[in-house]
Amino acid sequence: MEALLPSSRPMRADARRNREALLAAAREAFLAGEADAHVEEIARRAGVAVGTLYRHFETREALVEEVYRQEVDELCAAPGEFLDRHAPDEALRRFLLLLVEHAAVGKGMAVALESIMATDSPVFDDARTQMAEALDRLLRAGTAAGTVRGGVSGRTVLRALGGICGMHATEGWQDEAVRITAILYDGLRYGADHAG
Question: What SS3 string covers the chain?
């Protein structure tokens, strides 16, 4: 389809609005646990025809993938904002908690995401790489400030968080994950040059 081919031409304003409305409607449905929301229903909520949805997203899986990618992009933009407003160790603490929150969002989208797990989509590998790089940035800043221990990579911290957030979504799991994340954070500060 011509509309799906990369183009140097910028997207028209109305087309961009339609795309954003579709992503917002899909995100809202998936996060509310409506994993089986049909494309027709998503298009209706976005206020567009189903053909418009398919002009932007060739398949339902492509829509799910883009919603998840958007979530990860927003998440991984946070370290820069946190570092602008907080000391590096506090920026790291806030981002760790944001990752726990992201895991909760992921659980809400889990069934929808299953539809792309069987595809060759690189979305999950890309997401892990982005999150590890975001953590690396915060860890480097904390090490340079002397408030976070050196020698720990973002990928290692992400693996630890994966274990924490991989707990079954039983009642209260997120509160427990937050408490365990606080222990992880304390461990990252232990042995730092100037950790208080």
Answer: CHHHCCCCCCCCHHHHHHHHHHHHHHHHHHHCCCCCCCHHHHHHHHCCCHHHHHHHCCCHHHHHHHHHHHHHHHHHHHHHHHHHHCCHHHHHHHHHHHHHHHHHHHHHHHHHHHHHHCCCCCHHHHHHHHHHHHHHHHHHHHHHHCCCCCCCCHHHHHHHHHHHHCCCCCCCHHHHHHHHHHHHHHHHHCCCCCCC
